[in-house]
Amino acid sequence: MTSGALPRLEAPAWLRRMLRPIAIPTDWTRVVAAAVGVGSPQVVGLLTGRIDEAVLASVGALCASFSDVTGSYRFRLRRLAIAVVLGAIGFAAGAAAPDPLWAVVAVLAVSVPSVLASRLGELWSSGGAHMLTFCVVATGQRSPVLALHEQVAWFLAGELLVLALAAATWPVRGTAPARDAVADIFTAILRMFGPGNTVTARQRLTKALDTAHDVLIGGASMSRSRVRDRLHLIYLRATPVVEAAVSVAHAGITPPLRTREALAGLARCVRTGEIPPRFQPSPTESALVRALDEGIAELVDAFRDAKRSPAPGRQRERLSIGATTWWQVLRMLLCLALAEGFAVLAGFEQGYWIALTVALVLRPHSGSVFARTVLRALGTILGVLVAWALLALLPTGWWLVPFIVALAGKLPVALSRHYGLFSAVVTALVLLQMSQQAQFYPAARLVDTFVGCAIVLVVGYLLRGVRGGPSLRDGVADAVESVADYLSRSLAGAEHGRPALRRRTYRQLADLRSRLQQLLMSPDRHAEAEAWWPTIAVLERVVDAATEQAVRAGDTDLQQAQRLVSTMRTVNRRLRADPEVRPDSLHAEIDAIYHHMAR
C-alpha cells in the first residue's frame, strides 16, 4: 500500500449476507396473483362505495399472498389452503375481541398454537405465523359497521380469490428457485466445455455457486424442507465435480460426449426432481477426465440415495416439540404482553402495530431474530417514506390504486429475495390500503415499529441467560450421541423403547437446527453455524435410514451394524475430546455411515 493511501474497508461477512438480496428469478404467476388479489377489491370497493368490505377483502388477499411461494403446484396450493384456513381463524379470534383487554387475551392465546405449529413442518409453520399476524391485525382493524361474521366472510373472500388465482396457474406453474440455482451449477460447467471465452465461463460458474449458496443458506428467512436439504446435499457433493471440471477446462480438454450428457442430465433432474440414471466412469487416458467422471458418478449415487430416502421424517415434524420450542413460546408470550401493555399504557390509538412487529420478527424458524429485527426497522423506514410521499402528493381514492397494485405485485418478489425489502413493500402497501378507509399516520407507524423492535431486542438479550444450554459444539456432540444410541437400537432390531428414542432424537435435531438458523446471521457465530449446518441434515438422514432398516427387520448385517455404530461413537468421542476437529471432516464420516446404510 502506498504512503497516505486509505486502507480498503470491507463489511463483515454476516453484514453482507444480511443486506444482500438473493438473486432469485421473478415468478410472474405469483406477481399476477398478488396484484390482482390485493388490487381488485380496492377497485370494486371504489366502484360500489363499499370501502370497508373492500379493505377487508384486500387484507385477506394480503394474508394469502404472504404464503404464496414458488414451488411445485401441489405444494403451493397446500401451503395456500392451510394459510387460508388458519389466517381466517386468527382473524376471527382477533375481530371477536369486544374490547382492548380481550384483544390482548386473544392475541396471547393464539400465539401459543402459532409457535407450536412451527414444529409441524413448513406448511403449518407458515399458516401458524399468519394466524397470529392477522389476529393482531384484526384487533386493530375491527369494522364499526359490519357484523363479525361479515368481517370474517370478506376477509376469507380475499384469501380465496388469491387461492383461486394460484390454482389457475396450472398451465404455467414454475420451478422452485432453489432447484434452478443448483441446476445452474451444472449448466455453467457445461458452458466451460463449449465454444467461447473460458475465463468468462468460469466466472459464470463462480456466480452460479454463489447464487446457489445464497438461495440454500443465505438470507434472513429460512424455510425447512426435505427438498431443500436434498438440494444442499447435491450442492456440497458438486465440489469435486466443479474442481475436476475447472482442471479439465484449464487443460483445454473437451470431455467425452457421455460425460457432457451426464452433466446435462444432472441439471435436468435437479430442476424436475427426477432420479438420474446411474453413471459409470469410462476408461480414459486422461487422469483429469477420469477424476471428473468419478466425481459425477459419486454425485449421481448421492442424488439417487437422497431421492429414494424414506419418509419417516414426516413423523419428526409432528413430534419435534422440544425445549427450544417452549422457549420460543415463552419469548413470544412475554414480548407480546409487553407490546400490548405498552400500547395500552402509552395510550397509542393504533398500538396494535407494536404487537404486529413482534409477531412478524419473532416468527419461528425464519432465521436470525437479530437480522430480522434490524431489517424490519430499516424496511419500515423506507416503506413509511414511500407511503408518506404518496399520501402527501396524491388524494385518496382512485389515484392510489395503481400504486397499491404495483406494490402488491412487488410483494412476492421482495418476499423471496430479502426480508428488508419485503418489510418496506408491505409497510407502504398496508399504509396505502388503510388510507382508503380512514386517516392513517405513517409517522406513528414508524414509532410503533421501533418500539416493537426494541422490545424484541431487549427481551431477547435478557432471556439469553435464561435459555442457557450447551455450546454449539456440545449440542452437536449430544445429537451425535443420541443418533448413535438410536442407530444401535434400530440396527439390533430392538423394539422396546425405540419409538420413544426416535422421537427424542428427532426433537433434539430439530432444536439444534433451529439454533443454527438463529446463529446463521449472528455477527460472531455465523461462520460456525454454517460449518455445522450440513452435519444436521446428514444426521437426520441417518435416523431416517435407521428407521427404514428397523422396519425391514432381518435384512441387517449385524457385523456391519456394529461397525457403523462404533464409527458413530468414535465421531462423538473425537468431537468432545478435540476442540480443533473440523466440522467438514466429521460430516464426511457421518455421510459415509449414511451411504453404507442406504445401499
From TrEMBL:
Name the UniProt key words of this record, in alphabetical order.
Answer: Cell membrane, Membrane, Transmembrane, Transmembrane helix
Q: Which GO terms describe its cellular component?
A: plasma membrane
> Which Pfam family would be a valid example here?
FUSC_2
Give the transmembrane ranges: 80-97, 103-121, 374-394, 414-432, 444-463
Entry annotated with the keyword Transmembrane: yes
Q: Which InterPro entries match?
A: Memb_transporter_dom
Where located? Cell membrane
The Integral membrane bound transporter domain covers: 341-459
Query: What topology does the record note for this protein and the membrane?
Result: Multi-pass membrane protein
Q: Does the keyword tRNA-binding apply?
A: no
Member of which family?
Belongs to the YccS/YhfK family.
Return the PANTHER family for the record.
MULTIDRUG RESISTANCE PROTEIN MDTO, P-HYDROXYBENZOIC ACID EFFLUX PUMP SUBUNIT-RELATED
Q: What is this protein called?
A: FUSC family protein
